[in-house]
């Protein structure tokens, strides 16, 4: 949006959408003509040959099969990487992460034709440090001022609402969180109610059924971008229960800037915040369900945590700051390649 307002033509390649112009963007559907990355690469090459962009900004896996295409046509490529696929693939399938270790040299090799890396965690930047490619650590900033009033479900109004927002992947501590909810139920504690936002409904239903905690949980679904702030505002406490893992080491909890902007107390594990974004408004716990429960009770019984949350930095990470940083990166890459 920023680049299109600034007079640039912006093309977006993605799956499952029709080709049409929207607000200055030209959307191009990737039709997935074949089952392998070979076909995806050929399809991308056809589009790149047609458009001949000045620069390509690619996300995660798509950057891996566009790198060779961009090199072939002399087009600079910036890749935004959200983790290491060598670990993510096995983590998502509940397989031992060490299986992915032999794939790490391939992960490094695949970025050899990238001109600049935008990564979400310091460990990921360190992983690629010997690949002779410049990089920067960046986490998506909050943009909650783009909000429209929304009527949302407000179940259990009298209870203390604890929110988890995000995907339901193993390294994000879902089992730790549900173990704590199950323990709360078993203790007969009725003050807390847990809201889930943004994850898959089917996966959430499976977790709820597995732990038998349906009366303690509610699925808010996945709101639109403009509705996010209204949904977040229903929470009294946010929780970031990430557990120690190889997959998590190279990622970052992207919802933290939004949580901080809402000025609510946050409970996180020590592993969840490698960028140390959470400062005043947090309680850090070990990966232990009893510590998590104790932290919830501590927040309820001590108003200092609410006061700390109110004192959160008035200049949080914002999408506007991201835009400025990315614009500098675009200019730097274009200048170096020219």
Low-confidence stretches: none
What's the pLDDT, averaged over the residues?
82
How many beta-strand runs? 13
- Using only C-alpha atoms, the radius of gyration works out to 22 Å
Strand-and-helix sequence, N→C?
Answer: HEEEHEHEHHEHEEHEHEHEHHEEHHH
Q: Treating each run of at least 4 consecutive H or I residues as one helix, how many helices?
A: 14
Beta fraction: 15-25%
Note the main sheet: 6 strands, parallel
- The end-to-end span amounts to 25 Å
What structural class results from the helix and strand content?
alpha/beta
- Percent of residues in helices: 25-40%
Oligomeric status? single chain
- What is the overall shape? globular
Sheet with most strands: strand arrangement? 10-9-8-11-12-13
Please outline the helices and strands.
Blueprint: H1 2-5, E1 10-15, E2 20-22, E3 25-30, H2 37-51, E4 56-59, H3 60-72, E5 77-81, H4 85-92, H5 104-109, E6 116-119, H6 122-127, E7 134-137, E8 160-165, H7 174-186, E9 192-197, H8 201-211, E10 217-221, H9 228-232, E11 237-240, H10 246-249, H11 256-261, E12 266-269, E13 282-285, H12 289-301, H13 304-310, H14 319-337
Parallel strand pairs: 1-3, 4-5, 5-6, 6-7, 8-9, 8-11, 9-10, 11-12, 12-13
Antiparallel strand pairs: 2-3
Summarize the structure in words.
The chain is of the alpha/beta class and 338 residues long. It is 38% helix and 18% strand. The protein contains 14 helices and 13 strands. It has helices at 2-5, 37-51, 60-72, 85-92, 104-109, 122-127, 174-186, 201-211, 228-232, 246-249, 256-261, 289-301, 304-310, 319-337, and strands spanning 10-15, 20-22, 25-30, 56-59, 77-81, 116-119, 134-137, 160-165, 192-197, 217-221, 237-240, 266-269, 282-285. The protein has a six-stranded parallel beta sheet with strand order 10-9-8-11-12-13. The chain starts with a helix and ends with a helix. The model has no long low-confidence stretch (mean pLDDT 82).
């Amino acid at each position: 949006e920023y680049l299109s307002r600034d007079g640039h033509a912006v093309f977006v390649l993605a799956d499952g959408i029709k080709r049409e112009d929207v607000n200055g963007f030209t959307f191009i559907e990737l039709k997935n003509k074949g089952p392998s990355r070979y076909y995806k690469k050929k399809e991308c090459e056809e589009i790149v040959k047609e458009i001949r962009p000045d620069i390509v900004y690619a996300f995660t896996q798509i950057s891996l099969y566009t790198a060779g295409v961009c090199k072939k046509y002399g087009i600079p490529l910036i890749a935004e990487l959200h983790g290491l696929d060598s670990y993510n693939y096995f983590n998502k399938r509940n397989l031992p992460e060490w299986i992915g270790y032999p794939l790490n040299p391939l992960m490094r090799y695949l970025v050899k034709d990238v001109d600049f890396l935008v990564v979400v965690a310091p460990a990921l930047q360190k992983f690629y440090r010997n690949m002779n490619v410049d990089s920067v650590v960046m986490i998506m900033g909050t943009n909650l001022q783009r909000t429209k009033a929304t009527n949302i479900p407000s179940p259990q109004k009298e209870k203390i609402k604890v929110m988890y927002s995000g995907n339901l992947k193993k390294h994000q501590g879902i089992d730790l969180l549900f173990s704590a909810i199950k323990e709360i139920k078993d203790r007969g504690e009725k003050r807390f109610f847990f809201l889930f936002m943004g994850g898959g409904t089917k996966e959430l239903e499976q977790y709820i059924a597995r732990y038998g905690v349906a009366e303690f949980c509610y699925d808010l679904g996945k709101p639109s971008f403009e509705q996010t702030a209204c949904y977040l505002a229903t929470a009294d406490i946010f929780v970031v229960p990430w557990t120690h893992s190889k997959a998590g080491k190279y990622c970052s909890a992207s919802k933290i800037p939004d949580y901080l902007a809402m000025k609510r107390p946050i409970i996180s594990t020590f592993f969840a915040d490698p960028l140390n974004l959470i400062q005043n408004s947090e309680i850090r716990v070990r990966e232990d369900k009893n510590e998590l429960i104790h932290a919830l009770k501590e927040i309820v019984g001590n108003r200092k945590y609410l006061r700390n949350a109110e004192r959160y930095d008035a200049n949080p990470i914002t999408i506007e700051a991201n835009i400025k940083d990315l614009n500098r990166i675009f200019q730097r890459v274009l200048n170096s390649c020219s």
